[in-house]
């Protein structure tokens, strides 16, 4: 999987039926009357997202980690605003139909309405990348990471742009930041190993 394709994956609309978000319920106490707090039931979206990121950081099985990453993407896809969600859907449709100017207009409006929604910035970063507007894409990525430093899609996008510029040292740092959030991702592991070997070879 190329860095660009992985970057774009974060903006792909996932079928709602693909992923079911479930809460983990603590096991009943085997003895005595023990009160167990079922904290997951009443978790806020932010708390649930924090739990998913914690699971992603601990998981070493790539397939299981991918499932957790997909749950995180589902959380990112909900802005909490029906209007912004609709604009994002229109942008996705416009991108599919290669109507990039229209898609940019929808994303610009989504960002104006809810500037603290990281995924609208990330979607625009992805589109700018596809269009070859790397400077604009990097600017949008910086906004994403200001809002959500754990956004592995934005980090892989940053790595892709830095790789295109030929800056291996900064590209390696971007992939290392990615692996700090999502350690089990094979493409990122391969990129880090390849770049580390290349840079070590250049120093000898």
Strand content: under 5%
What level of helicity do the residues show?
55-70%
Distance between the termini: 30 Å
Q: Write down the overall geometry.
A: globular
How many DSSP-defined strands? Answer: 0
How does the major sheet shape up?
Answer: none
Structural class: mainly alpha
Whole-number mean pLDDT: 84
Kindly provide the radius of gyration, computed on alpha-carbon positions and rounded to a whole number of angstroms.
19 Å
Ranges with pLDDT <50 over ≥5 residues?
1-6, 8-41
Element order: H for helix, E for strand: HHHHHHHHHH
* Count of helix runs: 10
Describe the protein in words.
The protein is mainly alpha-helical and 204 residues long. The chain is 68% helix and 0% strand. The protein has 10 helices and no strands. The longest helix has 18 residues.
Task: Give keywords.
204 residues, mainly alpha, globular
Give a topology summary.
Elements: H1 3-9, H2 45-58, H3 62-77, H4 82-96, H5 100-113, H6 118-130, H7 134-147, H8 152-164, H9 168-181, H10 186-203
Task: Put the structure in a nutshell.
The chain is mainly alpha-helical and 204 residues long. It is 68% helix and 0% strand. It has helices at 3-9, 45-58, 62-77, 82-96, 100-113, 118-130, 134-147, 152-164, 168-181, 186-203.
